[in-house]
Each structure stands twice: as C-alpha cells, then as structure tokens.
Write a structure and sequence with these properties.
This protein is mainly alpha-helical. It has two domains: 66 residues; 99 residues, no CATH class. It is 63% helix and 9% strand.
Length: 179
C-alpha cells in the first residue's frame, strides 16, 4: 500500500514539475519574443544585423531569466487596458501642461518634492509602479523617505499629484491583481 502512495506521489510531483517547466518555457519564449521585437525596432529590420540580434536576444533572455526568475505574471487584461488608457490620457494632459509652461515663461513653476504614501510594498511591484510613473511628464519618483513613502519631484507642487498617483496606483494594483 505504501509503495502505491509513493508511486502516486512521484507521478503528482512529476506532473507539477512538467507544468512548471512548461510555464518557465512559455515565459522564456515570451521574453525572447519581446527582446527580438525590440531588436527589430532598433535595428530597423536590417537583415545584416539579424545574426547579431539573435545572439543579443539570446544573451538578454538568459540574463533576464537569471536576474528575474520566470514566474507567471498575474494580470487582469481589462484592468491593464484601463490602466494603459488612463496613463496615455494622463501623459497627454501632463505633456501639454509641461509644453505650455515651457513656452509661457510667465507661468509660475512651483517645483518641489511631495510625499506619496504608496500602498505597494517595497519590491518589484513598487519598482514597476515607479518606472511607470516616471514616464509621466511633470512628476518623477525620486526615492523614498525614512518611512518608506515615495518622494516625487514635481514641476508644480500645487497640482493634485498625490491624488493622481493614488488613482494610478489603484489602477496598477487592480491590473496586477495586487489588491
């Protein structure tokens, strides 16, 4: 009877390993495809550079898998699309505001730092949110304070930066199933 359980246990363990291996292979393939797409964009699709690109993509994929082990990304597609639309809209509005300030020297700049109490724990999720936030014109995450709150540099600290970042963080957390 105990040998039966041992055999069943080995089969279950081997099937979990196979599933995990397949998931790692899918993640590696996805990263390879993304890196190759980036290579095609920067090389302009030049066929002469294809061999160099294949080597560069292989090295980039291997490095990414070593530095950021393959794990499944838990993402809600509809929430991610909502986040993308929000970010694009905010980027457009912020870009127009920054351009307006650049061309109108009479507009007062009240640059400074604000503190944003992020709900994301310190780690990869918060780092990804900071990277996403850094793409927005007019505000740039600049680190954390002694209480692990995000410090953000703003062109105009009178703008509702904290409120905007709270909305973006909520959308980000929903998109990554982090709520």
């Amino acid at each position: 009877m105990s040998s039966y359980f041992r055999i069943v246990g080995l089969r279950i363990m081997s099937s979990v390993g196979d599933g995990a291996s397949r998931q790692r292979a899918r993640i590696a393939l996805a990263r390879t495809a993304i890196f190759f797409a980036f290579w095609l964009m920067i090389s302009g699709g030049n066929g002469i550079l294809l061999a160099v690109g294949i080597v560069a993509v292989a090295i980039a994929t291997w490095t990414s898998l070593r530095l950021l082990p393959a794990r499944g990304l838990r993402m809600r597609p509809l929430a991610a699309a909502t986040l993308a639309v929000h970010i694009l809209r905010q980027s457009g509005e912020a870009g127009i505001d920054v351009a307006w300030r650049a061309f109108d020297p009479l507009l007062a700049l009240r640059s400074g730092f604000i503190v944003f109490p992020s709900r994301l724990p310190i780690g990869s999720a918060r780092n990804a949110f900071c990277a996403l936030s850094s793409l927005q014109p007019g505000a740039l995450p600049a680190g954390t304070d002694q209480n692990d709150r995000m410090v953000v540099h703003c062109l105009d600290s009178g703008q509702p930066v904290v409120a905007n970042m709270a909305v973006e963080e909520a959308l980000f957390m929903r998109a990554l199933k982090h709520d």
